[in-house]
């Protein structure tokens, strides 16, 4: 059940292992909270060729008058080596006044604030004169392929759309980001035997790493660059002649 306390609203979803694009129980937890607020909830499955099916949630409160839309996501990036965490990533532990867990900021914390706000206005004039829509998807961390169609379908007639996605550290209200670009850059080298004639080769992995550093250093204040992965390589005794550099670019708000 949703409460006015965002910490309480946050802990249950964090305990759901909703690593993108897996729902992991987070949407079910949110569905129960929204149902307690009077929302009608629909679970929607998006399908696309070559990608896993993605489960999403659409909820609506009220049928007449203008509607406000809240958009967000419950999926999180993988936690990596869980043994290296000071607090388990899916335990939602509180220590020294801090809540720890994967998604505590991005963006189960934002969803908890949304639930608290909706509970706080329950029975007020705002709740009676406006309607509310909630759109939550489970694949934001890999590009939100499932949310575009939902937004096109549900956005008509809304006064405004809000997302509690974290953006600015000082809490300033910001416009939505202008997009994200993912690039795969193929780097060619020259193969050689690492023991007999390594200087005759050109190491593609080193070239890709150098390119990643150059791209990162060259990104300006209006754009962030994240070199995410270098793929390639041969047996240890061969100078690699190919590599693929994966890079993400995003405009800064």
> Which of globular, elongated, flat, extended, rod-shaped describes the shape?
elongated
Order of strands in the sheet with most strands: 1-2-6-3-7
Which percent band covers the strand fraction? 25-35%
Question: Would you list the SSEs in sequence order as H and E?
Answer: HHEEEEEHHEHEEEHEEE
The value of Rg in angstroms is 22 Å
Defining key terms:
five-stranded mixed beta sheet; 253 residues; 6 helices; 29% strand; alpha+beta; three-stranded antiparallel beta sheet; single chain
Question: Would you kindly provide a written description of the structure presented here, covering whatever features stand out?
Answer:
By secondary structure, the chain is of the alpha+beta class. Helices cover 24% and strands 29% of the residues. It is built from six helices and twelve strands. It has helices at 6-14, 26-36, 108-120, 125-129, 147-154, 204-218, and strands at 40-46, 54-61, 67-73, 93-95, 98-100, 131-137, 158-163, 181-188, 192-193, 223-232, 238-239, 242-251. The strands form four sheets. The chain has a five-stranded mixed β-sheet with strand order 1-2-6-3-7, sandwiched between helices. Strands 8-12-10 form a three-stranded antiparallel β-sheet, with helices on one face. It has a two-stranded antiparallel ribbon with strand order 4-5. Strand 4 (93-95) and strand 5 form a beta hairpin. Helix 1 (6-14) runs antiparallel to helix 2 and helix 1 packs across helix 3 (108-120). The protein is elongated. It starts with 5 loop residues before the first helix and ends with a strand.
């Amino acid at each position: 059940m949703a409460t006015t306390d965002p910490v309480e609203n946050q802990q249950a979803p964090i305990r759901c292992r909703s690593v993108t694009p897996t729902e992991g129980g987070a949407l079910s937890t949110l569905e129960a909270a929204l149902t307690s607020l009077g929302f009608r909830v629909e679970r929607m499955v998006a399908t696309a060729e070559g990608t896993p099916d993605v489960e999403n949630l659409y909820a609506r409160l009220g049928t007449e008058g203008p509607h406000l839309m809240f958009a967000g996501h419950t999926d999180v990036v993988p936690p990596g080596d869980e043994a290296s965490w000071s607090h388990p990533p899916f335990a939602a532990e509180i220590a020294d006044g801090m809540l720890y867990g994967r998604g505590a900021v991005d963006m189960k914390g934002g969803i908890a604030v949304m639930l608290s706000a909706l509970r706080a206005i329950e029975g007020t004039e705002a709740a009676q004169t406006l309607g509310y829509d909630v759109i939550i998807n489970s694949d934001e961390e890999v590009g939100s392929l499932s949310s575009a169609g939902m937004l096109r379908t549900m956005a008509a007639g809304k006064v405004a759309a809000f997302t509690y996605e974290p953006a600015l550290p000082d809490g300033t209200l910001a416009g939505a980001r202008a997009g994200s670009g993912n690039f795969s850059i193929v780097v060619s080298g020259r193969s050689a035997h690492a023991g007999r004639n390594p200087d005759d080769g050109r190491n593609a992995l080193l070239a890709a790493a150098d390119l990643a550093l150059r791209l990162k250093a060259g990104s300006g204040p209006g754009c962030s660059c994240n070199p995410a992965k270098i793929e390639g390589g041969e047996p240890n005794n061969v100078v690699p002649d190919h590599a693929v550099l994966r890079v993400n670019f995003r405009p800064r708000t």
